[in-house]
Design the sequence.
């Protein structure tokens, strides 16, 4: 008899709770009162501070179109953007919309940018060994993606690459090996 009462109580509780829901069944959005959002998440500052704000700016990175020419695409990055932060988006590659438009990347998605700074208008970029494993023509395009993205950040003299802290010379189309890769040397890859 005692078990029958327990089963009955559980069934009654289940029926009562089945009428409750945490998710609105309305198909229209529901306006939420500002006072009901906890922890100041709607304030223009970072929660638990009264001064810090996160600002975003647009910055171009370079991807590859169907004709294997570099084209700029915009990414939102925190302000002020650093070269390291912006170059992070190059291996990430194109968005789904950009892929649908035919854009790709020669930079492997698993390549990691270890360091990236600008010194005397030259980008000093250290990456993982995946760059050396790309075939030569694709490698030039991948380096050009980094180069022109860095040029947009102020590295107008060019880029010096290293792989795991070892300087990496790029073999150009004419067979010359260069440590400082200038925009003029890979300018033919950029769409005008």
Sequence:
């Amino acid at each position: 008899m005692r078990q029958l009462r327990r089963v009955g109580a559980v069934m009654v509780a289940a029926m009562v709770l089945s009428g409750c829901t945490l998710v609105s069944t309305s198909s229209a959005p529901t306006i939420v009162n500002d006072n009901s959002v906890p922890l100041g998440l709607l304030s223009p500052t970072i929660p638990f501070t009264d001064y810090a704000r996160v600002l975003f700016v647009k910055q171009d990175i370079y991807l590859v179109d169907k004709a294997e020419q570099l084209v700029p695409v915009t990414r939102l990055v925190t302000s002020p953007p650093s070269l390291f932060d912006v170059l992070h988006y190059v291996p990430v590659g194109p968005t789904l919309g950009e892929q649908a438009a035919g854009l790709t990347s020669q930079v492997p998605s698993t390549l990691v940018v270890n360091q990236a700074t600008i010194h005397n208008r030259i980008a000093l970029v250290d990456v993982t060994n995946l760059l050396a494993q790309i075939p030569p023509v694709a490698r030039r395009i991948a380096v050009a993606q980094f180069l022109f993205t860095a040029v947009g950040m102020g590295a107008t003299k060019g880029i010096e690459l290293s792989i795991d802290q070892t300087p990496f010379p790029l073999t150009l189309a004419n067979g010359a090996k260069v440590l400082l890769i200038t925009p003029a040397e890979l300018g033919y890859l950029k769409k005008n």
Observations:
- The chain has a mean pLDDT of 87.
- Residues 56-189 form one domain.
- The beta strands are 56-64, 70-78, 113-119, 122-127, 158-163, 166-167, 170-171, 177-178, 180-181.
- The CA atoms of residues 158 and 182 lie 4 Å apart.
